[in-house]
């Protein structure tokens, strides 16, 4: 049985083989003592499928376990005693949806560009419409008859008290 706190009620009972745990710890200790650099000269380059399924590859991926903690390999059994593959099905559904959404990077067939536009291409351009400039209307020529009412108003202003007039309109 695996050790766990008294108040923890996380999941069901967990069976652990003590011998397997001891051998895993021993293997890990041996690997830590070796600390060989991971040199993989013939590691495969990324393929198109690897680009669709995102695989996080860190710069110093050999230290990921120390940062993130040890990843335990485990599986769950259902009530019948068979391995529950719900996680694998879930991951496969995610992979399928990513493959569906993958975009093709194929380019359309290339063709030589001509130096002149075809009549069909010319019709696609928007034709600009010329604005009509508004011409200012010319004023009618002024006649003497139109100026007579203005002259009478001006005369009344001139005859009235001007600047420097006193209280009664007298000039000082």
UniProtKB/TrEMBL annotation:
InterPro entries, per the entry: SNU66/SART1 (IPR005011)
Record-level GO cellular component terms: U4/U6 x U5 tri-snRNP complex
Chain segments annotated as coiled-coil in the UniProt record: none
Subcellular location: Nucleus
Keywords: Nucleus
Biological process according to GO: maturation of 5S rRNA; mRNA cis splicing, via spliceosome
Highest taxon listed in the record's lineage: Eukaryota
Name of the featured protein: Uncharacterized protein
